[in-house]
Amino acid sequence: xxxxxxxxxxxxxxxxxxxxxxxxxxxxxxxxxxxxxxxxxxxxxxxxxxxxxxxxxxxxxxxxxxxxxxxxxxxxxxxxxxxxxxxxxxxxxxxxxxxxxxxxxxxxxxxxxxxxxxxxxxxxxxxxxxxxxxxxxxxxxxxxxxxxxxxxxxxxxxxxxxxxxxxxxxxxxxxxxxxxxxxxxxxxxxxxxxxxxxxxxxxxxxxxxxxxxxxxxxxxxxxxxxxxxxxxxxxxxxxxxxxxxxxxxxxxxxxxxxxxxxxxxxxxxxxxxxxxxxxxxxxxxxxxxxxxxxxxxxxxxxxxxxxxxxxxxxxxxxxxxxxxxxxxxxxxxxxxxxxxxxxxxxxxxxxxxxxxxx
Length: 358
Ligand SMILES: NC(=O)C1=CN([C@@H]2O[C@H](COP(=O)(O)OP(=O)(O)OC[C@H]3O[C@@H](n4cnc5c(N)ncnc54)[C@H](OP(=O)(O)O)[C@@H]3O)[C@@H](O)[C@H]2O)C=CC1
Ligand SMILES: N[C@@H](CC(=O)OP(=O)(O)O)C(=O)O
Description:
Layout (H helix, E strand, L loop, with lengths): L1 E8 L4 H10 L6 E10 L7 E4 L2 E4 L1 E2 L2 H4 L4 E4 L3 H13 L3 E4 L15 H4 L5 H4 L4 E3 L5 H15 L1 E10 L6 H17 L32 H13 L6 E8 L6 E9 L5 H9 L4 E3 L17 H4 L5 E9 L5 E8 L3 H17 L2 H7 L1
The structure holds NADPH dihydro-nicotinamide-adenine-dinucleotide phosphate and aspartyl phosphate (PHD).
Family: Belongs to the aspartate-semialdehyde dehydrogenase family.
Protein name: Aspartate-semialdehyde dehydrogenase
GO molecular function, one term: NADP binding
């Protein structure tokens, strides 16, 4: 089994900490020989217990990063842009969770269950960088890929219900603080007003990230362009409305689809349940836990690896129309898990070994 030195940049953030937790598990393709953790200067020196050893957070620095075989970047795009090209030049595999390289034509944008063919050594030998998609894009493309293959997708309309952890650790603190403040002082303000444009506690906001000229938000635009890139279908008709909701972890998506082929809800459920990484929870008889039988909520998806699909039904707005609900843990499959699965795949298919021998 390949033994690797793995780096996490942004190790103190919500994605970095989730990656830290997941890396303590066993993988089929590699073992963590050594874990290196990086963050900003203010976190340097903090100590974490990883398996039987202690790992001290380092302030991000190129020299130390060069000792890694594979690095997971979970920081702002600007940090990825600064460090990744220098590390890639040295042949070090960089998996980027930020949006810095997602639209770059030489960088594969990968969800292993959907387009693992992009992880072949030849595809990344010159620039060993792989981008991990947006946390709403990942579950969406898994569902679309499964259904497109069988029923031929024409268009998709999606509305998201995104938890605050999608906006990072400070956003989790804002929801906590606003909620506490409401019960203690009947006041919804909090000290960090720059995270969300309006108060998020007891509210919903049809605004995730910045506004573009065409009226879409940045998040909506990413869902559309990333889905087209991953499915290799640049003309796919797709509309997205992204909404921030006052939940902590787990993003939901309400999706309406039109297909070329005739389709029933039962066929959709059957097709999705056979797709790796998707769990269909939509039938009372199938599941034991009471609150888990008919549909899955963000709280139930929290901490789980699967993308859950519920509420599958025909809709008459399109001739061959289907509506459904998707929910997944935005920090796991939506971020850290997907990135670590990419490393595992690159270990299994020989890409990392070829990079090390280069
Ligand atoms: N949250 C999510 O659901 C998803 C996030 N992403 C992307 O993943 C990335 C990380 O997001 P997230 O974990 O949510 O963010 P957080 O705000 O929770 O964490 C940010 C991390 O970056 C570190 N950092 C900040 N400034 C610097 C610096 N100058 N040098 C080095 N490290 C620094 C922070 O360290 P310190 O604690 O020391 O400040 C912290 O570890 C972002 O690009 C985000 O868009 C992608 C998909 C989903
Ligand atoms: N923007 C997402 C998180 C995410 O995936 O971001 P990005 O696409 O910038 O990595 C959210 O707030 O829920």
